[in-house]
Write a structure and sequence with these properties.
Number of strands: 2
Order of helices and strands: HEHHEH
Strand content: 5-15%
Number of helices: 4
Distance between the termini: 24 Å
Strand order of the largest sheet: 1-2
């Protein structure tokens, strides 16, 4: 009968691996649940384009629109594909530049608990990679 191989190709350690993964996963979830991600208006983005309810994003959509128009005229146009790609990249950069990430106020014991869960789970995962052979007691 084939020998059961655990985490990292070593015998044993599956309990440590799954326990560590669960512990780290819960700690990461608790930490991420305290993070607020939002996008706001009024930020100055790349190339001086400013986001406002009036629509400063339209400035970076100009290369995209020109590129699409060129592609409708000639689908093999390298300049058309380049401008379309540039427009998409600029749009993505502008959207990402408006994102604001904040950590909500959290008590020190709660934060330390999250860090201990993440680090302890990572330690258990690393421990599962060690050989748990028959000779160890």
């Amino acid at each position: 009968m084939a020998k059961v191989v655990g985490a990292g190709g070593t015998p044993g350690g599956l309990g440590h691996f799954f326990g560590g993964a669960a512990l780290s996963g819960i700690g990461i979830y608790l930490l991420f649940s305290r993070v607020v991600v939002s996008a706001g208006y009024g930020y100055i983005g790349a190339f001086g384009a400013s986001f406002s309810p009036g629509g400063g994003l339209a400035v970076v959509m100009i290369p995209f629109a020109i590129g699409v128009a060129m592609l409708f005229g000639n689908g093999k146009s390298i300049a058309g594909w380049g401008l379309t790609g540039l427009g998409l990249v600029l749009t993505l950069v502008e959207i990402i530049s408006t994102i604001s990430i904040h950590f909500q106020p959290t008590s020190l014991p709660a934060f330390l608990g999250m860090v201990v869960m993440i680090a302890g789970g990572a330690g258990l995962i690393l421990r599962s990679l060690a050989d748990h052979g028959e000779g160890e007691g």
